[in-house]
Structures are given as C-alpha cells and as structure tokens.
Amino acid sequence: MRSHVWMTIGLAAGLVLGLVAAATRLPALLAAAASLRPLGTLFLNLLSMVVIPLVVTALFAGHVGRLGIRTLGFFWATTLAAIVIGFVVAALFLPLAGVTPDQQAALRQAALADSGFVRHAAEQIPTGARFLVELIPANPVRAAVDGNLLPLIVFTTICAVAAAGLPNEQRRTLTDLADVATGALIRIVHWVLLLAPIGIFALVAGAVAQFGWSLVKTMAVFVVAVIAGLAVFWGAVFVPAVVLIARLRPARFFGVSWPSLAMAFSTTSSLATLPTMLAAAEEGLKIPRTVASFVLPLGASINRSGSALFQAVAVVFVARLYGVALGLPELFLAGTAVFLASLTVASVPSASIVSLAPTFSATGLPLAGLTLLIGLDRVPDMFRTMTNVLGTMSGVAVVAAREGDQPA
Fold this sequence. Notes:
- With 408 residues, the chain is mainly α.
- It has one domain (3-402): Proton glutamate symport protein (Orthogonal Bundle), CATH 1.10.3860.
- It is built from 22 helices and no strands.
- The radius of gyration is 21 Å and the shape is globular.
- The chain starts with a helix and ends in a 6-residue tail after the last helix.
C-alpha cells in the first residue's frame, strides 16, 4: 500500500488503542500504550536528526528576493485572516459555555496554584528590541544546536545572498554542494519515513491513553470552538487559494498533503513534518526544488496561522471565564498582539500558549489563565499544527503558481 495509507492506519490504530485504554483503564492496555512511547521518541529523534541540516541546505539552494516577498506575504495575510475568523467563531460558540461563579472560583484557584511556570516561560520569549537583536546569531552553530531556527534562517539567507555575488564558477560550486547535500538528506528522510506508521501509532496511542477525552469534556465548548474555527479557516482561506491561484483540485491537493497532516497531528510539530512536506511538494505536486526548498523551511519555521486562530479564541475564552469585557478596541489590540506573537518562534513548552503572555498583559487578562489553557492544550495542538502545516503546503503551491511553476 502507499505510504499515506499506512500512515492513516497507524494514526487510526493509535487513536483506538489510546481511547480504549483511557476508557477501560485496564492495566495491560495502559502498560502497552506507555511501552510504545520510546518508539515514538526514537521516530522523532530520527526526524530531528535531519531537520536542521535540511533547513540550512534547502534554504541555501533556494532563492530570495521576489520569492521571499511573496512567501512572507501569503503567510502573513493568512495569519491575519485566521485571527479575524478566530474572534468571530469565539463570539458565536463561547456564549454556549455557561460558567457559574463557583466554577470560576475553582478554576481561578487551580490556575493560581501553578502560574509560576507560565510566568517563567513567558520571560524566556524574546520581545521588542531583544527579539530584533536575537535575529542575528552571535554563534550560528550554537543557534543550530539549540534548535533556534529563526536566527539560523537569517544567517543562511545572508550567506545565500553573499554567495549570489560570487563569480559563476564559485557560486555554482556552493549551490551544487547544497543541492547534493539536500538530496542526500532527503534520501535519509525516505528511510526514516518507512518507520512513520509505527512512529505515529506509538505517539498517538501514548498521548491519548494518558489524557483520554477528559480534556475535551472539561472545556468541550472551547475545544469545539477552536476545531470549528480551524475548519472554517480551511474552507474560507486555504481551499480558495489552492483552487483559484494554484489551479489544483482540492482532492488532489489534500491527497498529496495527507502524510504531512498525519505527521503534524501525531507529532504536534510543524518542523518535524518538513521532510514529508518537501517530498510531497517535489514528488507529489512537481514543484521545483528551488521554490520548495525556500518556501517550506521558512513556512515550517514561521507560519503560525493555526496557532494564531487558536490564540484568538483563547483570548475571548479566558476573558469570558474571568468576566473581562472585550470591546472592539480591546479586540483590535489583542489581534495586533497575537499577530506580532506569531512572528516569534518560542522554544519553550506550549509555545502557542506561553506566547500569549504579552496579549494578556495588553488586554488586562490574568496571566494565571494561561495555565488553564496548558491543561487543555494537547487536543487543540494536534489540530492547530495540522493547520499550520496545511498553510505551509498551500503557500508553496500558491507561490509556485505565482512564480510560473504551476503545480501538477
């Protein structure tokens, strides 16, 4: 069977095992789900092993200039659309969640008990002048070791621009080396992806067995609002862009993108899906490597449209939970803060939630409310990561079409 079918089977099997173990609480099933976690960790380690060098070589082999402007324009425009849709969906869904004063008091008490972690993690997020300074790495090798991709992308782009000014023979030597290295890394990726069904099965089974559907039951309306907002976003933004600009049939586009979406759902990491996205774009959509190797690493690193929509819903949710009224000025301020937060790539746990700290401060929401969101994060994280990845795949198809390289 084709690889995406095996990935689907692994995803479904992991969900079934995890849900049955969580529902029955049978020791044998719980132990089986827990014993699979090392396999999932091994699979993630194999992907991580090739991601950083793949980002560097693929970006170096790509082009900047007009291609970069179009790429950033698409990602930023879709992020703004996601924020607007998030506010609208939250306004429609969240009134259905009746919160009593007793529930508010209990939730506040639970949040205050563990707000120290959120405050400490929020302090690690670079903002303002610090964010601009840290875009230029003092030590690019250290940035690569730490997995801090945005400074690494800036350094690689500077090197690519500098190489473009070299004599033809010298420039060709460097670009040929980058192309060969990218090809070798993609071959390693193909070997790793043979283990993808097992890795996805192990990751999903372990997570679902641990958390079950208790998170969804706890704040069902909030989770449903996030998922519904992401579904509306897919249909209102990504599908029209793919159909009208990239001239692709939705069935074909989603069929090619499915392995990347399954990977995103199970790993909750956009970066971990980069190898599958590169394979899907080059082999599935026949997009030239010069376009795919620039757009996809950049998208995996900075495209956060799904996270932005989640954050927009989260702001309205916490405001309702604590009885804070948000008018149009407050919503505009919150939307601006969410958009600026999407430009940072925070290397801290629950980054999409922790990076809401500046937004909460700007709108007067209690920082302790972030702790509640962390407890609910696993289920929405799966869906918003899928949306981030789908946005990156849509972006490469749209940018390729605008560059005159029509996806096939």
